[in-house]
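Progress against Task 2.4 (sequence-to-structure conversion) is shown through the following example record, which the project officer requested during the mid-term review.
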Amino acid sequence: MPRSGTTLIEKIIASHPEGSGAGELLEIEGLHNEMCPPAELDVFEERFNEAISSDKLIVYADSYLDVLRYGREESCKIVDKLPDNYLFLGFIHALFPNALIIHAYAHRSIPACPAISSSSGR
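Structure tokens generated for the chain above:
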């Protein structure tokens, strides 16, 4: 799997006194699937519009923030670096319209495997 640099970005943000890394959380997909199970994608737009026009989005956002903040209560900026979250950008934006989203991707010229070196000189 190509590497995109999410760990480096997380470490840079977490090195700030107000930043923290949460690793790769699975909650966004879970909340999305709770709102509209994959077997019911044919009614996704209807369900999404219902959620947007109700207090459900607030409940989903609060639920996610509870997980995100657990053990990181002092942090103002927290990174969830799960690469698959790009599949849910519309949902994330609906939950957190002011959130900063950093898009990191691997360039094709970067090898998928890290270079291996040895102290034996070989």
